[in-house]
Amino acid sequence: MRNIVLGVDIGGSHITAAIINLKNRTLVENTWRRDRIDANGTASEILNGWANTLQQCMAAYNIKPTKIKIAIPGPMDYKAGICLIKDQDKFRSLYGLNIKHLLAKEINFEADKISFLNDAACFLKGELYSGSLSGFDKAIGLTLGTGLGTSHMARGKTRDSDLWKMPFLTGIAEDYISTRWFVKRFYELSNRQITDVKDLIDNHSKSPYFNIIFREFSYNLAKFIYKFIKKKMPLAAVIGGNIALAEDYFMEETRKQLAEMMGYSFPVKKSTLGEKATLLGASAST
């Protein structure tokens, strides 16, 4: 069946996959898989982890997908399937490898039926496709997690905005809008180590630095969105990624700070689809 596709979202700490029925824009029940991946592992460990998830996902459905569409952060040679990530604290062991051919071999699937796509662009496409941005035709998307993903709508297509490395404050944008900023900033203030934003919320919410960190993050995020808006002139923005799960601690303050910078209230929406947005966006991409 041409409408049956395996959609995949690869992030810095996880892989998520599901069989997608493109005809009715839905995930096939009981095929959803989400597994943690050590992005600092060896190439073999990472590829084996990905392959295991994909194989279990496909085994849960009796129809073989016609294609596998994989959303993954850049830099990548997306057409050839060559990983070019080397300076982002993830996937260093994959640098220069043709992960399309290696993964195809691991799962015994035709390499020419596997496509790699930018994860941020897929996320925005999914939200425009059937999520929180349905009805908008000009928007920007941000995925906040291990890294910073940015995307925009241009001439009817979603594209990677590649703003993670944009000069920002005293470094680049990803230095201030990512999990590593929370880890670094909390250590600077408290001299205590955390693993991620979930750890901060679950185990350090009583810290005197907890609210300070989220206020700083809200300002940084609002300032970045303001610069993003000036570049692309969108009508709305959508935010997703693991950090977006902590929206209660920063979203309203971000909107408030952004409104002060803009001089008016700009629509900043949280993803309604979550990880499904990227899977749907990847699967629907040509």
Automatic annotation (TrEMBL):
Q: Name one Pfam family in it.
A: ROK
What protein family does this chain belong to?
Belongs to the ROK (NagC/XylR) family.
Q: What is the name of the protein in this document?
A: ROK family protein
- Say which species the protein is native to: Pedobacter psychrodurus
